[in-house]
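Figure 2 data, in text form.
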Amino acid sequence: MVCNMAVDQGNVSKVLSVLSHPLRREILLDLSNNTESSFTDLLNLLKVDTGKLSFHLRALSPFIEQTPTGKYKLSRAGESAVRVIHDVESWAEVADVQGKASQLPLASFKNRAFAFFIDYAFMLGITSAITFIPTLLAFSTSGTLTGSISQVLFITIGLVWLYSTLLEGFNGQSIGKRIIGLKVVRTDGKKMSYDHAAVRNFGKVLPLLPFDLLYGWRIKNNAFMRYFDKFAGTTVINLRSP
């Protein structure tokens, strides 16, 4: 049997009011990162006068406590407050991405192609340097060099998938997309994840790319220029003004 205890909504409002001030959140996050900070440390960080800092520290009294040396640190309630702050920041990021996905224009095929070629050239350059330089230094035969070319292409395909998955899963942008001003977002408005990035980037593997584009063309939806975008529930938006 679950017993639902009544929560004093007035206290909830007071807590939210305390955490609503950005300077107070910055104090709590600093104490979370540094464990302890002195009054002077906080003054130097926040660039405010002593009276203003003292006021905000008093407001944060339920969330902080002082050590025997006079420094400030988080109480247990403060540690919980920091977790709430991080959660709210994540929710705010999701809301921002959702707003961008609905307001910003979809990326054109041309811009997406440019971003892809930048990424592919970047990975090809890295792989070529790693593979060919030792071969040339060793004065290998042309047959070995031909084998190295095949090896470079194979490794590059794998690197493009891994590199795109990691960067797009982290913040929706590979180097190419950042240069062109594009970003991958989920069509449901949620935060981009490594799982979704991994799925959508399977279509970039060269043997699959023509089929990926062909099926994307048959969908006849600019949000899904590639089939694997539709399969992953992702699309690409243009962060710059058209």
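Caption note: The longest strand covers residues 182-186.
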